[in-house]
From TrEMBL, chain B:
This is ER lumen protein-retaining receptor. The gene is LOC108629378. It comes from Ceratina calcarata. GO terms for biological process: protein retention in ER lumen; protein transport; vesicle-mediated transport. It is a multi-pass membrane protein. GO terms for cellular component: endoplasmic reticulum membrane. Belongs to the ERD2 family. It is found in: Endoplasmic reticulum membrane.
Length: 10, 212
């Protein structure tokens, strides 16, 4: 699960 | 970055270019829902606030700026420059019915209760349903010009390609984000009926016309 506030997608 | 995501981004970019060219060349935004375009502008502005705080890559930054700038430009063209051609009589979907539930959902289901994160989550939920006013407009007029159909096909394909990207990332990197996956499925499903008509009619050279 990704870290919040680090969205690498568009 | 994998091939599905790149194709998804390019499809998204293509959709926007097709729409901008259509409006600019024909000097008209007939058949396009201004409501959907306002929602898309809200989507990109609220999602890409992290442009200020987080650097991911030059590609990422470039695309975000393009999406914000073009979405604002489209709204400007529709509501100011080519206002006379805007089909407001048919574009009657009430956007508060989309804005309020997606905002409430973002407040309830998110990764972290911070302003930036809630706005990001809101943008994901809102994007998944932002096309509804456009689909509503097409159903009201009963038809869509082929260029509008190409735009909708490219726009719908983008999240579908992202679904393949998420499957790929799940197996390759063990990465998954349930919020975007569920919203992406909803978003893609909303286009299914349109995809069917596009493939069976528009690709065979016919106009997209809904059965009476």
């Amino acid at each position: 699960v990704p870290d919040a506030e680090e969205h690498d997608e568009l | 970055m994998n091939v599905f995501r790149l194709l998804g981004d390019l499809s998204h970019l293509l959709a926007i270019i097709v729409l901008l060219l259509k409006i600019w060349k024909t000097r008209s935004c007939a058949g396009i829902s201004g409501k959907s375009q306002i929602l898309f502008a809200i989507v990109y502005i609220t999602r890409y606030l992290d442009l200020i705080t987080t650097y991911i890559s030059a590609y990422n930054m470039f695309m975000k700026i393009i999406f914000i700038a073009t979405s604002i430009a489209i709204v400007y063209l529709m509501y100011v420059k080519f206002k006379a051609t805007y089909d407001h009589n048919h574009d009657t979907f009430r956007i508060e019915f989309l804005l309020l539930p997606t905002l409430v959902l973002a407040l309830l289901i998110n990764h972290e209760f911070t302003i930036v994160e809630i706005l990001w989550t809101f943008s994901i939920y809102l994007e998944s349903v932002a096309i509804l006013p456009q689909l509503f407009l097409v159903s009201k007029t009963g038809e869509a010009e082929s260029i509008t159909s190409h735009y909708l096909f490219a726009l719908g394909s983008y999240r579908g390609l992202y679904l393949l990207n998420w499957i790929y990332r799940y197996y390759g990197e063990n990465y998954y984000d349930l919020i975007v996956i569920v919203a992406g499925i909803v978003q893609t499903v909303l286009y299914c009926d349109f995809f069917y008509l596009y493939i069976t009619k528009v690709l065979k050279g016919k106009k997209l016309q809904l059965p009476a």
